[in-house]
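Message: A physicist's question: would you kindly supply an amino acid chain plus fold tokens?
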Amino acid sequence: MTTAAPSSTELPEQLAEIRDDFLALEQRDRLQLLLEFSNELPELPERYQDHPDLFERVEECQSPVFLFVEIDESGAVQLYATAPRESPTTRGFASILAQGLSGLSPEQVLAVPDDYPQTLGLTQAVSPLRIRGMTGMLGRTKRQIRIRLAPTTTA
């Protein structure tokens, strides 16, 4: 079995495990794993359920996907995402990122290679447009982290 070439940046353990789980499977079984991830997208915490204004639409996704990043009091990133149940591929990608990035430091998330979605071995199983959607989710997550880390200035 061939695995993706190691990246110049070491992947955080949970993202590497997710990638390796996908690569250990045959192509048709990878879609089943993606479906399993779609069923495991974490629910929004109650404090955010009534605040859709905090969430950013991921325009790169055909389905309505929204995400919000916070850096908790311990300094760990928490990624929250919503995606419709009737869009299991997109929902699966959101779940992979929510599970794989949450709990990491901002620096670890920012160091995740932008091509991580292409390393999951799904490029033959799903359309390039869907992979681009996951890449958009990762990019918007990183952008939100940069905004939260930026020093605030007072006028």
